[in-house]
């Protein structure tokens, strides 16, 4: 589970660094949160 969470955080960091607008940051943070939530649900 730790590897999945680490991968999700790194992917989120890449997505956040790639966006140019405040709206883009919101979308990137939301998608990173969805990835973490999906990983958590998968490992229940």
UniProtKB/TrEMBL annotation:
Organism of provenance: Sphingomonas endophytica
Family according to the record: Belongs to the EcnA/EcnB lipoprotein family.
BP terms from Gene Ontology: response to toxic substance
Pfam families for this protein: Entericidin
Signal sequence interval, chain numbering: 1-18
This protein's name: Small secreted protein
PROSITE patterns: PROKAR_LIPOPROTEIN
Keyword Secreted attributed: no
A cellular component term, taken from the record's GO annotations: membrane
Alphabetic keyword roster: Cell membrane, Lipoprotein, Membrane, Palmitate, Signal
Keyword Nucleotide-binding listed: no
């Amino acid at each position: 589970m730790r590897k999945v969470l680490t991968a999700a955080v790194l992917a989120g960091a890449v997505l956040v660094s790639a966006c140019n607008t405040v709206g883009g940051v919101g979308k990137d943070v939301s998608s990173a949160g969805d990835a973490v939530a999906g990983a958590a649900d998968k490992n229940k």
